[in-house]
Design brief:
The structure is a homodimer.
Chain A: E1 6-8, H1 12-23, E2 29-31, H2 40-43, E3 47-48, H3 59-83, E4 94-98, H4 101-116, E5 122-124, H5 126-132, E6 142-146, E7 150-151, H6 154-167, E8 171-173, E9 178-184, E10 187-193, E11 196-199, E12 203-205, H7 218-223, E13 225-235, E14 245-248, E15 255-258, E16 263-267, H8 281-294, E17 302-313, E18 320-323, E19 329-333, H9 339-356, H10 363-366
C-alpha cells in the first residue's frame, strides 16, 4: 500500500480502526469534521450488553455482538494502559427487569430465546436481584442477569482511544471536512480536504451519520438514515446509585447506566425524525417515568442535563462493515445503537481486512453488497 | 425625613416601592446583594390570577389580591411608558381547568366559593373553553374563566421596573450586601454596607428570602422560611401556544403561562426543602405530566430550561407589610407565591405609608405585630 490508510470520522469506530492499525505497524490518519468523539459516541450511554439487545430473527447479529463483548476486556485494558486514561469499565453484569405482569410475559419469551441462542444468562428471584441491586423497586416481576456483560463511560472511552491512537503513531486531524473522494479506474485515488487534495489509496468511511462527501457510492445515502435519540443524566451525590447497567422492557423502556462519580445515564428514545435535534418534554416524561418505575430514587435525583444524538442506521439495522466495489474504499457504517459495543471488534476486523486482506466471518451479512 | 428612604432588596417588591416613592418626590436608594430582579422575581411565571389563588378561610387575602389585580393595568402602563420596555402584559383572562371527574368535584367547590366571594368568574362549557384555547385537551371536565385576570413576563417586568425607578431619580446599587442595621433609642440610625456605614432614617426590608442582616428583629428569622419551587420552560416555534394563563387543579397541578415569543412557562413545585437548590427528575416528571394532561402538544414541545427559586413565606402564608416596632424600619416580606401579583399594590401602599404615614386598610392582617 503506497499511502497510510485514511479514516474519515473520529468516533469510537474510526478511532478503534485507527488504533488497531497502529498495532499492525501503520501510521494512519483519522480526519474528523468536528472534534474526536463528540457526536454519536458522546451521546451514547456505554452499554456492552448483547443479551438485552437480541431481536428475534437476528441470530447472526447476536453472534457478532457476543464476539464484540468478548473482545472488550482486553481492548479496554490495552487502551487504558497506553493512554493512561481510565474509562470506568465495569464487567460485573447487567440486569434486564420486568416491572409488571405484562413485562413478565415478554421477559419470559426473551429469556427462552436467549437460552435457545446459548447466551450466558440466568433468571433471578426478586431476593437475588435486590441483593445485587438493593435500590431497585420492590415488587418487580422478573429479572434476567447477564453476569459477564459490561458498561463503560463512553465519553472517557473516546478520550482514551484518541490518546492511544496518537501514542501509537496515528495522526488525528480535527475540524477538517473531507469534501470529496476521487476515484480513477475503479479505485480510490485522492480525497479533497477543505481546499487541498491529498493522495489516497485506502480510505475507510467511519462517518456515522455524517456522509455528505462527494464521490461516494450513491447506495450509501439510500441505505443510511439518522435515528434521533434523547437521553438524560441524573445525579445522587458522588457515589453510584447502581452497580450494573439495568434495562427495562416496560412500555416506557429505559436503560440506566451508572457512572463512578454518582451520575446515572438514562436513555434513550428511538425517533424517526431525521436530523431534528431538539430535546422534547415528552421524551423526558417517558424516560424519567420509566426510570422511576424501576428505581424509585430517581424521583429525588438531581437533573443534570439532557442531550440529543443521532445514530446511523441502515435499512436492515445491521452495519455495513467491509470493502466496497471501489478498490481501496471501505465502510464501517450503520452501527445504529451498538457503536460503543462494536468498537473493539469492528476496529479489529477492519484493521485486519486492510492490513492483511483477511475476510471476517461476519462479512457475508455486513457487506454493502447485500443492498445492491 | 432627613435622609432618602433606603430599600434593601431589588426584586419586584423593592423596586416597586422605590418607583412609587419616586412618584411621590423621593430619590430612594435600592440596594441588592446580587443583581436586580435575578432571584425570586426571576424564577416566577408572571401570573396575576387571584381567582385561582383563593384558599378557603382566607377571604381577607383574596380581597387584597383582587385589589392587586385592579392596580395592575395602570401600573404596567406607567412602567412601560417610563422605561420604554414592553412586558408582554396580557389582560385577557385566565382559565382554571378540571381534567378529570375528581377535579370536577373540586372545581365545583372552588367555583361556588369564588361566587360566594363575589369574584368575576364564569363556568364555561367545553365548547366555550376550546373556542378560547383550541389546544387544550379534549374531554376535560370543567373550566372556570376569570375574564379580567392577567399574565406578564416577570423577567421583563423586573427590567422595566429597574429602569423606571432609575428614570424617576432613584438610585440602584447592585452587588453590595447590607451587613447590619443599627438602631438607637428604638429608631433606625445607620446601616453597614460592606465595610461602610451609612446614615439611615427610613429602611424598608424587601429582602425576600435573603434576610441575614445583623440587627434585625429576631422575630423575622422565626417566621420566614424559603419554599423551593421548580419550574421549566418549553417552546413550540415562535408563536404562543396558549392565549391565557391556564391552571389545573389536578393531583399533578400545574400552571401554564404563555410568552409572546413562543415559550411556555410551566410551574411550579412547592417544596419544604429549605435552601436546597437542585432541580429534580421527579419534579420534571410531575410538571411535564400535568402539562401534558391539559395541553397534549406539550409532549412534542422543545425542552428549553429548568430552574429553581425560593419563595419567602411567613408562618401563616400572608405577607408582613408595614412598620415594625423599630421606628423607621418597615417590612415588605413574605410574598410567598404572590410577589409578582402583589408588586403594584405593595409598592403603592408602602410608598404612601412612608411618605404620608397613611395606614393601609390591609395593615391589620399584614402587620408583623400578629406574630408578637
Amino acid at each position: 500500500m503506497s499511502q497510510e490508510p485514511i479514516i474519515i470520522g473520529a468516533g469510537v469506530i474510526g478511532l478503534s480502526i485507527g488504533w488497531h492499525l497502529t498495532q499492525l505497524g501503520f501510521k494512519p490518519l483519522v480526519i474528523d469534521q468536528g472534534l474526536a468523539g463528540q457526536e454519536t459516541s458522546w451521546a451514547a450511554a456505554g452499554m456492552v450488553t448483547p443479551a438485552s439487545e437480541i431481536r428475534f430473527g437476528e441470530k447472526h447479529l447476536t453472534d457478532f455482538f457476543l464476539d464484540a463483548l468478548h473482545a472488550y476486556p482486553a481492548f479496554v485494558s490495552a487502551i487504558e494502559k497506553i493512554s493512561g486514561i481510565k474509562t470506568d469499565f465495569q464487567q460485573n453484569g447487567s440486569l434486564l427487569v420486568a416491572i409488571d405482569v405484562d413485562d413478565e410475559a415478554e421477559l419470559t419469551r426473551i429469556y427462552d430465546y436467549q437460552k435457545e441462542l446459548g447466551l450466558d444468562v440466568s433468571w433471578l428471584s426478586e431476593e437475588q436481584a435486590l441483593l445485587k441491586e438493593p435500590l431497585l423497586s420492590k415488587g418487580c416481576h422478573g429479572f434476567v442477569n447477564a453476569p459477564h456483560e459490561c458498561h463503560i463511560d463512553n465519553r472517557k472511552l473516546t478520550l482514551a482511544l484518541a490518546k492511544a491512537f496518537e501514542v501509537g503513531g496515528g495522526k488525528l486531524v480535527e475540524s477538517k471536512k473531507v469534501e470529496a473522494l476521487h476515484v480513477e479506474n475503479g479505485r480510490v485515488k485522492e480525497i479533497t480536504v477543505g481546499n487541498e487534495t491529498m493522495a489516497a489509496t485506502c480510505v475507510v468511511l467511519a462517518t456515522g451519520t455524517r456522509s455528505n462527501i462527494k464521490g461516494l457510492p450513491e447506495i450509501l445515502s439510500q441505505i443510511l438514515r439518522p435515528i434521533k435519540g434523547q437521553a438524560l443524566c441524573l445525579r445522587h451525590g458522588d457515589t453510584p446509585t447502581l452497580k450494573h447497567a439495568v434495562r427495562t422492557i416496560h412500555r416506557y423502556p429505559v436503560y440506566l447506566v451508572p457512572r463512578a462519580d454518582g451520575r446515572l445515564i438514562i436513555g434513550a428514545s428511538n425517533e424517526e425524525k431525521g436530523w431534528d435535534a431538539l430535546p422534547t418534554a415528552g421524551n423526558m416524561l417517558d424516560l424519567i417515568y420509566g426510570a422511576w418505575k424501576v428505581l424509585p430514587l430517581a424521583y429525588e435525583m438531581e437533573f443534570v442535563e439532557t442531550w440529543v444524538g443521532h445514530r446511523a442506521a441502515t435499512r436492515d439495522h445491521s452495519p455495513v462493515v467491509g470493502p466496497t466495489e471501489i478498490e481501496g474504499l471501505y465502510t464501517a457504517l450503520g452501527m445504529y445503537r451498538h457503536g460503543i459495543m462494536l468498537s473493539p471488534l469492528v476496529g479489529k476486523i477492519m484493521a485486519e481486512r486492510i492490513a492483511k486482506g483477511v475476510e471476517s466471518k461476519y462479512e457475508s451479512f455486513l457487506n454493502l453488497k447485500r443492498f445492491l
